[in-house]
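Before relying on records like the one below, remember that each one covers exactly one chain. Contacts with other chains, cofactors or solvent are not represented anywhere in the record.
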Amino acid sequence: MFDVTLLAGLALAAGAIAAQRPAPTVVACVVAAACLRRRLRPAAVVVAVALFGWAALRARRQIDAYERSREVARVAIGAPSRCDGVAVVVSSPVRMHGALRWDARFDQLRCDERDQPTPLAARLYGGPDELARGARVEVVAQLAAVQPLANEELDDPRPTAARMGHVLSGGVLDARVVAAGSDLASRIDRLRAHVRGRIDATFAPAAAPLARALVLGETDLDAADDEAFRTSGLSHLLAVSGTHLALVVVSAVAALGAILVRVERVAAAIDARRIASAAGVALAWAYADFAGGSGSARRAAAMLTVALAARALGRHPRAARSFGLSTVALALVDPLAPFDVSLVLSAAATAGLLVLGPLLARAVEPRVPALARPVARAVSTTLAATLPCAPLLVSLGPTLPVGGVVANVLAVPLGELFALPLALTHVMLSPWPAAERGAAAAAGGALLAVRAIAVATASVRA
């Protein structure tokens, strides 16, 4: 039978999408139900329909509430205005084109000598490097109400805007931190700022933006590099993808388990691997947050949480159930999660690996010589992850990265098995300058090689 948690997750995701595209979504769901009718119990279908309707209603309500808030801001502020007020930093600051981008909640705001209704959410550009979540900041900025740009060839921008939540945006003219945050999130942001500074100080200028993307999730590439990575199908190597996060967390859990099993008192009292798995749950979320908290990172953290929690409880995790439960959790927390492109691409790639991966491996590997099987396995894995993403990639742009299979086979070992461990090791080496510079040189060289592959394969598209 079809896994009930996966069915629930799909129903919640489809319901949210139906808030924007009701007719095609309903048609797609009916077709899918018809194809799976022999694997679905009637009770499961009833529950799925109820979840679908509830998710559609939640998504529609959030979009409508955002539109009302945006209209209030538009009427109150009008044309771009010079404003001053007190704001709280609510998102991790990200370096973009030489300036910080951060989300703020204004608790006090005056524009052109007029008090504004608060609280108001804003996306701001600029400010001091010591900004971190939870800090209270006195801000002077040029602000305007957000105006989502509609384009007939693209999807309705309102769900994405509603998901981000800010109704104002603008540039910071002056900012002064009056009270620093003291919680875990603020400490993570200060660590991010330290790592950002060390990357800029020790990596070659051409490699530093690539390293910040890999380690901190900051997509601050120049236009040519950004285009090359997108059109070659290698953008995931510079994002904190599910594979990226899983490599780090699973390796750390294995290392912790290996250490604990050698501690006699621990090993005698309890299975050390269960303790390591429990610790891995916290590590997954802390690392996902440190690496930028993208949709793909949060999805991977949620899936790892289910799998590691099962192991901590002494149970054997099932990949399909972990995927389904993580999808349900994210959809419950964020009604508009399906409008996060990075999350959807990550989920599609994971589904491909779970469903198509074993099928392609069984079909391809027995038919190739033993020496060529590692390459065949890499090609099968890349195809399994890429094929489910193709429809979304086509909807986002007019071309498909046909060269992506070759690019991934060449670049993934460099990126995930060489550049990533070195770049993360670099984070811990600032007390030893020579070792830090060596790690930066090695990781930077690997990243520049990945960029060369991206540039070389970017022109191969359909």
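The chain is about 60% helix and 10% strand.
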